[in-house]
Target: TIGR04452 family lipoprotein
Amino acid sequence: MLKKILFVALAFSLTNCLVLNPVGATVDREKGSEVASRITDAAIQTDLINSTILVGRPFISIYSLIAADIANIDSAKYYVKADVDQCVSDIKGFKGFVLGSVIANILSCQDLKTDGYLTGDPFPTF
Model:
């Protein structure tokens, strides 16, 4: 009986990431549609602040409206939350103010890690 319990516990711990990550049930993952929305909002906010300070009137670039497409975000996949948070903070932060939201997006958001069934952040890379 103890062997069965240990086997079930081991099997569950090994397959936990395989089952929970693709459905977005883990804490450190975000759905692609949410990521796209956060990146687009950050780019719009940065453009509004930069244009108001530099030009004197609010202006939104067309590139801010397609910021999620520039970052190659797939709305059906899940992304590592820490990487998304870093991307959004780069767009809203000093890098976004100095370089602009488009270039900050290209530099910070191009290599966001997606989470898959057999690959992703929970598994070690060799």
Q: What stands out?
A: Residues 17 and 80 are 13 Å apart (CA to CA). Residues 2-115 form one domain. The chain has seven helices and three strands.
